[in-house]
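Chapter review: from sequence to fold.
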Amino acid sequence: MNLPLAERLRPRSLDDYIGQTHLVGPGTILRGMIATGNISSFILWGPPGVGKTTLAKIIANSVDAPFYTLSAVHSGVKDVRDVLDKCRHDAASMFTSRRPILFIDEIHRFNKSQQDSLLAAVETGVVTLIGATTENPSFEVIRPLLSRAQVYVLNPLTEEELQQLLDRALTHDPVLKERKVRVESTVALFRFAGGDARKLLNILDLLLQSTPETDEIVIDDAVVTDRLQKNPAAYDKNGEMHYDIISAFIKSVRGSDPDAAVYWLARMIEGGEEPEFIARRLCILAAEDIGLANPNALLLANSTFDIIRKIGWPEGRIPLAECTVYLATSPKSNSAYMAINNALELVRNTGNLPVPLHLRNAPTALMKKMGYGADYKYSHDYPSHFVRQQFMPDALGHPVLWHPADNPAEQRSAALQYDRWHKDDKSS
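The token string follows.
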């Protein structure tokens, strides 16, 4: 029994499928498709381990149609064309009763030309497309293809569904059901699984493999935590702790260590991480951690994201590395990040305070009569294009929300603001 537990327990029918009742429960659209055998093109969108591939295979087993699979990670345009040729042959065959189904795992990894090569076949009914993606299809799938495929969202498994999966593993797996297992607590197990069925089963597999055959397998919070800390990569799809690695990457850039940052970048690349995911995190970091200390950082991060979407792997590693080193060596500031957090807290605490009358627009005579826009001072009419006036709600006065960091760029801005608002102010 060399197969992993997740493969041994992979459902073969909807009766064994756990979760996604909004899609496969009684009276739902996908169950209806399977029952009739009339499958239309669709894309399954959801996080890893929630049953996208399994659902596609169940459909393949349930309908009398030729079934082909492609992995977007390993397939190029030629592979797509080859499999579409087979689909055309099947579609034209008198021995084929239903349209061929093509399942593409991680379809978001296909570039535009690869997706374009699918479009004609889907449009003409040569093939029924089933795609699976962990990324928002609105951003990652070309619009013409998206318009011809319904998107169905799959959700992380609930604790109740994870419990069902655990019970099934302990009672149906030919290996586990022969072992003595004692379940004392599932809090840590479910927390580490995080709604991911594959992760939960891989953790069980780890506990099984790390416990001598003569010993009882104990499932409690202490045992699960201890085993996973000693084997941090044991249950991850690509041998990587996805969220731990990206956390280390971000903190290395924030901590101005380009060597560590590039190392963690390499770990993600080797682990098969999505290039767009890394680029998005760099954009967030540029705004949050570098901010006004070097506004060009956000421009470079955004350019990196655009370039990555155009070129993908493997060349995408180069602009990602360039951006990573640039951000890591850049001066840092989170003043804008803290300013908006301070402002949001103030809004939540004070509610919807009225806009001062002089700041309101007055497009009608009635509004002007009511004082809208009265006494507003047009900044450009004053020296240096600045004049003091109340811009906050009257009830707030002028609380300070932005606190400049101690870098040259912000200190210059702070000095200018002081001259504008406080110079010659006896109260300051």
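Two observations follow directly from the output. The first helix runs from residue 5 to 8. The chain has four domains: 20-153, 159-230, 242-329, 354-421.
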